[in-house]
Structures are given as structure tokens and as C-alpha cells.
Amino acid sequence: MSAGADRRGLTPDEHHRERAQRKKELVDRRIARATIDRGVVVVNTGNGKGKSSSGFGMLARSLGHGFRCGVVQFIKGSFSTGEEAFFRRFDDLVDYHVMGEGYTWETQDRARDVVAAGAAWDVAARMLADPAYDFVLLDELNIALTKQYVDLDAVLAALASRPERQHVVITGRGAPDALVDAADTVTEMRVVKHAFKAGIKAQHGIEL
Amino acid sequence: MSAGADRRGLTPDEHHRERAQRKKELVDRRIARATIDRGVVVVNTGNGKGKSSSGFGMLARSLGHGFRCGVVQFIKGSFSTGEEAFFRRFDDLVDYHVMGEGYTWETQDRARDVVAAGAAWDVAARMLADPAYDFVLLDELNIALTKQYVDLDAVLAALASRPERQHVVITGRGAPDALVDAADTVTEMRVVKHAFKAGIKAQHGIEL
Q1: Are residues B29 and B119 located together in one domain of the fold?
Q2: B203 to chain A: which residues are within 8 Å by CB?
Q3: Does the structure show a pLDDT above 50 at B1?
Q4: Where in this chain does the record put each Cob(I)alamin adenosyltransferase N-terminal domain (chains A, B) (predicted)?
Q5: Does residue A97 sit in the same domain as residue A109?
Q6: Do B199 and A36 touch (CB under 8 A)?
Q7: Are B152 and B185 in contact (CB under 8 A)?
Q8: To probe the interface with A, which of B30, B44, B45, B58 has the most A CB atoms within 10 Å?
Q9: Is B197 or A54 the better-scoring residue by pLDDT?
Q10: Least C-beta-crowded within 10 Å: which of A77, A107, A131, B38?
Q11: Would you tell me which residues 43-102 of chain B have a C-beta closer than 8 angstroms to some C-beta of chain A?
């Protein structure tokens, strides 16, 4: 029995191999069970960081596959300058619309916010009806829904009747329950800690 | 008193404006307090979706600002093909390294995994010591740390002594507590639901 071997005569590396084999069988079985192949609705919600940036990461992934993509930003922040500068370079593949008028506490004008959100939704609804779009990112739509600037039933109907292969990613805190029910994949981004609370300014490349 | 006005004579829109003003003051005060301007360490952990894609979204943001970026993927999945295809196009700005050998249950060879993770860490450590890199993404490093393929103390020391303006994003489930302590911003991506469990295959543009 060699050094480090257990009572079955297995070395740690052999143990690792045995465990890895069992895990691989489990994963392979799960993959074999996942046979449905269609577009999905992904919702990123919660108070933590990464909801929009994850959406833009999936946009990059989609572009890597040569997909035709649509982006509608429902809230134009003083934030979100870097990704816009970047993705606007690919205007052969990405239709990029920044429609919102800033966070509601910045515009301080509900009537203007409602008009801007309605115009943004019109653009989004057109994309959701058009099979030419493989991937549609509706950034911060959840905020427009929570504030009832955009009608939830209209969004649910557009998602339900969209082209079968089309992926849709919807971001923003406070995703309505009915949207969570309608979605295929939902993630809650939970704050563990945030640099901003420790007095660190929003950073280019990270938040901006 | 006009229709819809309250006992103070305010219409709903005026109410909204008042609330928005108070919120703006609060947000402005918080922004004024955040005066520290330096590179941050961001950790995306948890079992949910969006850890890596958020990292790639911040990479896109960084490229939008013309930052010089480094990427090391510690676990090369059968996944993660779209973002590699995409970001390799920007080889003037991005050093892209895929160093891992696949998920551990796929390689089934601990010794080979340890060597691959060590080589990946060598590349990462070089980036963390080089002020030419404005943004460094260490994708799935947490898994290599949890499995003790990479030494946690070496990672903490490299983060602590990195160039002051450099941003680092570290992803992967199971972030060690000491790394969470050392980070500036930490998000837990929590699964609410996942398409895969409902039998839907991993999708290009979303997972692949």
C-alpha cells in the first residue's frame, strides 16, 4: 500500500478520478435530459451589481456567434457610457437604442418619463415581433414596469408570441412576479458588499 | 382644487416631482461622499447565472473606454465559445488566455488540472503586477481556489500589491471568505429558476 493510499488502496488522485467520474455521469445524464431547443427569456433582477453587465456579456456572446441583436436601454443613466461606446461599433449586427431620459429622480418629470418609456417599448415590441432578431436585450425594463410606465400585459403578450428561436434578456431590480413566472431563467443579483458604500466613486469599466 | 389633487393641492405629477427631488438629493449626497478614486476588486459568486457574463460585460465596458485588458479563463468549458470568438477580435487591446483543461469532472485527472491551473495563475500574476493592464478578468478563479489548485495567499498578496488604478474581476461559485473580505464589490448570483432544469438545452448567445 503506497503512501497516501486509503483502506481500499486508492491514492488521493485515484479518489479524485473516481469522484470526477461519478460527477461526469451525473452531468452527462442531466445534459442528455435537456433536449428542448428554443429561444429563452432570461431575467436578471435584485439589488446587486451585474444585472446589466451580464446582459451585455450575453450580447458579446451572441455577437461571437454572428447573431443579429437588438438593444433597448429603458433608463439612460449618467452611467452606462462604456458599453454603448463599444457596442455601437457593431452597427451591422446591433441595433442600439438608448430611449430613457435618465433615472426618474434625475428627470423629475413623470409625464416625460412615461412618453420616453412608451417610445422605448414601441421599439422593443417591434424587435420582439421580428424573426430577424436572434437576441434582444431590454435593459432596465423592470424599472419601467415597476413604475407602470410600460404595461406588463403588453410585455407578457409580446414575449409569448415572439419568434421561437429568439432570446430575450430583461434586466432591472424589482422584476414583477408574472414576468418571473413567464421567464425561463431568472437570477437574483444579491449585494454582498459594494465599493460605493465604502466611499469609492463609480469606476470606468466597472460601472461606467 | 383640481381633479386628482390631494389635500395639499398637489396633483399626482407634482407629488412625483416632490418625491423625485428628495430622492435626487439623497443620491447626490451619496455620490458626493464617494470620493475615493482607485481600481477595485469585484467578485461575482453564487450558484446562479451571470457571474462570467457580467465579467465579460465589464470587459466590453472597459474596451469602450480604450482600456488595455487581460483575460484568464481558469476553466475552459465546452461552454464559453461565443465570448472567446468575440473578444479575440480585439487583440490589440485584450490579452486572452484560456488556460484550464475543462471542468474537473471532464478531465478526471487532478494532476493535469493542477498543472493547468498553475500555468493560468502564472499568467494572471504577471498581469496583476503590470500597470499596463487597466482591467483584468480572472474567470472561474474561485473554482481553482476552492479546489486548492491555486494558492489563496498568493492571490491575496498579488491583489494587495497590484497597480493602484487596476480593476480586477474574479468569478466563480464558492468565493473564499478571505477573498470576499479583500474585495471592494461582491455580488452573489442566486438561482431563482434555470431553463436547463426545465429541460432546455444550453443556448448559443446565452450560455455558449
Answers
A1: no
A2: 37, 39-40, 167
A3: no
A4: 13-31
A5: yes
A6: yes
A7: no
A8: B58
A9: A54
A10: A131
A11: 43-46, 48-65, 67, 81-87
Provide φ and ψ at B150, rounded to 5°.
-125, 140
**Grid coordinates representing A36?**
428542448
Cα–Cα distance measured from residue A175 to residue B3, given in angstroms and rounded to the nearest whole number: 32
pLDDT at A60: 94
The total number of structural domains that make up chain B:
2
Q: What percent of chain B has pLDDT over 90?
A: 62
Domain that holds residue B29: 8-35
Grid coordinates belonging to B199: 429541460
Which ipTM value was assigned to this complex? Answer: 0.87
Least confident of A104-108, B84-88, B126-130, B175-179: A104-108
Q: Which residues contact B150 (CB under 8 A, 6 or more apart)?
A: B74, B117, B118, B120, B121, B141, B144
User: Are A30 and A47 found together in one domain?
Assistant: no
Is B49 within 8 Å of A81 when comparing Cβ atoms? no
A11 lies in the same domain as A75? no
**Is the domain of A21 the same as that of A100?**
no
Instruction: Give residue-wise pLDDT tens across range A126-171.
Output: 999 999 999 999 999 999 999 999 999 999 999 999 999 999 999 9
In a domain, B97, yes or no: yes
Q: Number of helices (H) and strands (E), helices first, in chain A? A: 8, 6
Q: Answer whether B20 sits within 8 Å of A104, measured CB to CB.
A: yes
Q: Tell whether A204 is covered by a domain.
A: no
Same domain, A126 and A194: yes
Q: How far is B122 from chain A (nearest CA, A)?
A: 23
Q: Are residues A151 and A90 in the same domain?
A: yes
B106 and B135 inside one domain: yes
Residue B7: what pLDDT? Answer: 76
